[in-house]
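Milestone M4 deliverable, item 7.
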Amino acid sequence: MNNTKCPFCNIDREVIISSDHCFSIYDNYPVNKGHVLVIPNRHVSDYFNLEPDEIDSLWKQVKEVKNFLDGKHKPDGYNIGLNVGRSAGQTIDHVHIHVIPRYTGDMEDPTGGVRHVIPERGK
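Output delivered:
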């Protein structure tokens, strides 16, 4: 079931990788060069409501995206994550996993990585 107002249900840009359950696109507002979103085909707003085969397919595609980005951008590391619910920062009501390439020197001190979603508690 697709939602006609959902930007991920109505993709009008290049799909990097696709499968029976998901597809990957570059983020429209990248935080770093090569920032990709892995998105289930089925419109689901909450990650925890995905079916097991959808979850498996998403994480398999995360690895495929990583391999693609390794070849294209040669990053030094990655942050991988998703937001579930408004209070966690989810702004689009369609599950998507961020694959964010990281490069040495892209920020002064990357220590703590994703723990810094609440900066004052990250360390």
